[in-house]
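Dear Dr. L.,

I hope this message finds you well. Following up on our conversation about the binding site, I have prepared a predicted three-dimensional model of the protein together with uridine-5'-diphosphate. For your records, I am including the exact sequence and ligand specification that went into the calculation, followed by the structure tokens. Please feel free to forward this to your student if that is useful.
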Amino acid sequence: MPKRILITGGAGFLGSHLCDRFIKEGFEVIAMDNLITGDLRNIEHLFKLKEFEFYNHDVSKFVHVPGELHYILHFASPASPIDYLKIPIQTLKVGSLGIHNLLGLAKQKNSRIMIASTSEVYGDPTVHPQPEEYYGNVNPVGPRGVYDEAKRFQEAMTMAYHTYHKLDTRIVRIFNTYGPRMRLNDGRVLPAFIGQALRGEDLTIFGEGTQTRSFCYVDDLVEGIYRLLMSGYVLPMNIGNPSEITIKEFAEEIIKLTGTTQKIVHLPLPKDDPKQRQPDISKAKNILNWEPKVSRVEGLRITYEYFKSLPKEVLYHRDHKKFDDFIK
Ligand code: UDP
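The resulting structure of the complex is given below.
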């Protein structure tokens, strides 16, 4: 009998790639999403498969899934600083009420559950690169607090269910990830720069551009997640690409890739923007025998092809199709 897996946030960037991977592995996949930031176009190709189901549901409300459920991946959450500003309460609710509902479901169904945590639990880190043992430097009341604290609460709640209810849990701390199906208008640096290049606009660097990030291609991340889920490791694990770059260098790479003749403009640096970020992936290497394989040159090329293939109205309208549009 095929195993059944519930993927929350299944219509999102990471969620949809996970749906693809688990379908490929022979699972029955149930994607759940309330489509606040997800987009059905990401999973449109899966609707014809009998192994695939979609529930249009907000996991902050009671979650019911009939039948057996062997695995749950909780990947539903807004995940960009622009989203946290626009929908802060939903961001907090999906990480707190949402995880409580899903842990309850996992307990009832005896499922293994993995939660998507984030490098944001380290805040603006004072330790570099960041190992899992670092407790972080988070401002709870800053603009990112709604995301960072929800994710920290989510980790605490998951460990409590593991310890108290003996639930089979996994926690993945995801660092900046990119690839096809990122939302063009979510404000994240990669879709921002590529979107600007395609529309012939200037590239907007926040601050001087000396802040660093380390970008992981989505297929590498999905492989790490798959291995962690199938492993017996219950403590949080970093998954990301340690190849670190300043945002200024990153803008220059995008200029080279796209051939844009536009210039770079500097805008004010948002509050609490982390100055540096790089995952320490020793644990993933040793325990999962995992490390990223896709170089930034290769990953960016594939991602750029994807953005170039989007219809013009998506590029200019800067919004995405909602459930109602989709079922019309
Ligand atoms: N950033 C930028 N220009 C943009 C969007 C983002 O310079 O148009 C910067 C942002 O200030 C941050 C970095 O790029 O330092 C990564 O931002 P993103 O929102 O992608 O992710 P996060 O800050 O959560 O890592």
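In brief: The chain has eleven helices and 13 strands.

With kind regards,
A. P.
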